[in-house]
Automatic annotation (TrEMBL):
CDD domains: SANT
Record Pfam families: HTH_TIMELESS (PF26019)
Domain of life: Eukaryota
UniProt name for this protein: TIM protein
One GO term of the biological process aspect: DNA replication checkpoint signaling
Upper lineage: Eukaryota, Metazoa, Chordata, Craniata, Vertebrata
Amino acid sequence: NKKAFVELLFWKSPAAVREMTEGYGSLREGEGAGRSRVPPWTPQEEQELRELYWKYKEVEGEDVIAAILAHLPAPGRTRRQVVKQLVRL
């Protein structure tokens, strides 16, 4: 690549560097930062999350997120995903 020196002038993420070294289009194969690994929240899961939040938000001395995770019917959700979704809602 004759113009690679121009690309070196700007900050690169590890995924962009990998794409530069392995060839452009390598990220389109479903690997790297461009791919979302978090399954989207369904409307039913969002409703359940709302209900659990309103149920456990007033309980003193208990971690609200831990209580929600314990009673959330969708397995595999992390604490960060639940907090992010609650903020979004």
